[in-house]
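Something for you to look into today, if you have time. Could you write out one complete protein record for me, on any chain you like? The space below this message is yours for that.
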Amino acid sequence: MATNGRRQVDEDDDIIDVDDSSLQTNQANYAWEEEYKRSWDVLQEDEHGSLAGVVNSLQQAAKRKRQLRDTDPIQRGIIRHLFIVIDLSNAMQEKDLRPSRLSLTFTYLEAFIAEYFDQNPISQIGLIGTKDGLAEKLSELSGNPTDHIRALKMKKFQETGGEPSLQNALELARSSLIHVPAHGSREILIIMGSLTTTDPGNIHDTISQLMQDNIRASVIALAAEVQVLKFLSTQTKGTFGVAMNEGHYRDLLFEVIPPTAVTTTKASSNLVQMGFPARSNESASTLCACHGKLTLGGYICPRCNSKLCDIPTECDICTLTLVSSPLLARSYHHLFPVENFIEIAWKDATATTACFSCQKTFLSPYKISLQLQATTDAGRYQCKLCEKTFCADCDVFIHDVLHNCPGCLSQPRRRNGSTLNANSRSLRTPVIAG
């Protein structure tokens, strides 16, 4: 007897009929058994048969992805002390991230360090590697990016081994961060590719010590979500993420660059004693106080007159924080970031024809079909204060590099130096008492 369903044999060797509809319902639980989707059908050509508008829209969306963050003026820790813990175990040789987890990590870290010090010039970084159940310092806390990049290049081609030790790495970072002054933030970034860790003691005791010392720990997992890593980041008010691919890995790493909001308020952090050392060019070599090496040039501490190699740093003799005024001014933009620009729709795109900053001509909405306008953006972004319009490239440049709106800075000024727009960001100028 013919049936519309499929036939199945049960445990008693009896033949029963199975309906196709119920079988399809059970198969729908598996992603690989569902109907495939033609994602390329979403792309639509313009009247000239070109996909340039769609491609441009995708590029602009990727460029502005990092700009969609909170820009409210809040208290942030701009004097940061960050230790980066790198997993050097055998798990980092996996090739799910090309060319390998380890090679990609070192490549991204070199770019991360350069960008980190560009955005946080008065902060410091230290590197820690862990393998074979041990942890070692690759570089001390320093504000010189050259030292850290050199340490990364020396470790890049060395062999990995064993399993990492999360507890040893955290204890090593904590031993250096507990001496950081109260006005500086204490942070740890862990890049973990292994699913296991070899610890000599109870890891929860170390996590409790990090919470007491106000040390924030963030984790980037390259393999999968590990419960102890997520628990560590949650308890210390850090961030946790699992890298899905190479691009997502880079995004997770570079999200650490902007300083986070200050969660604790201490009376000792309201006023910070800083010294602005003078540059010294000597004809004969003298010993520096930081490394004990003979150097020709350096910076002279204004309090104890000791010589140090680089700034920003803390004087090893009198423990005075040493910075320079240009570095301090460059860090000020984190306290009052440029607000996110408003995206202009196609229906309002006829008001402006060119970017205010680079004078690039915008694509006319009359040359774009209504069907294509529904799937793409106009590529125009407007400042809320000065109401000037910018292209996507200038939008990213203003928020990432310039940190000032050209339209707000071009506003006419009165005799007292204030702009006509009372809400303009240019009114927020730092005052440094000497």
Remarks:
- The first strand starts at residue 6 and ends at 9.
